[in-house]
Amino acid sequence: MNVVAAARERGMRVRGTYLTDDPVGGPDDAPAFDGGVETVRFDVTGGSDADADLQSLLSDVDRTVNCAALADVDACETDPRRSRAVNAA
After folding, report:
1. Domain range spanning residue 13?
2. Residues 82, 45 contacting (CB under 8 angstroms)
3. What is the tally of structural domains in the chain?
């Protein structure tokens, strides 16, 4: 069972975030969850309005689980700064 399904099973309100580097991007790249879970594109590494965006995303939730990760070992070695920004808390 994934994190979203487990939380929904316990009656929690769930909102998912995603980020894609795919240049064709768009709403079709958002992950699909059963039960109509809202998904929002969000860059955990920052950006111009990251703090305000994060506050807005968290305004009506009880808990947060950060599952963001850069798992491509070659990409992590090529760009250690980005790797730390995504993977380090």
Report:
1. 3-87
2. yes
3. 1
In angstroms, rounded to a whole number, what is the distance separating the alpha carbons of residues 85 and 52? 18
CA distances from residue 78 to 18, 59, 67, 70, 83 in whole angstroms, order as listed: 22, 36, 22, 12, 9
pLDDT digits (tens, 9 = 90+) for 2-41: 888 888 888 888 888 877 755 444 555 566 666 667 777 8
51: left (phi over 0), alpha (psi -120 to 50) or beta: alpha
- 37 within 8 A of 9, measured Cβ to Cβ: no
Joined tokens for residue 24: 């064709």
Dist. CA 19–CA 17, nearest whole Å: 7
> Is 0.90 topped by the overall pTM?
no
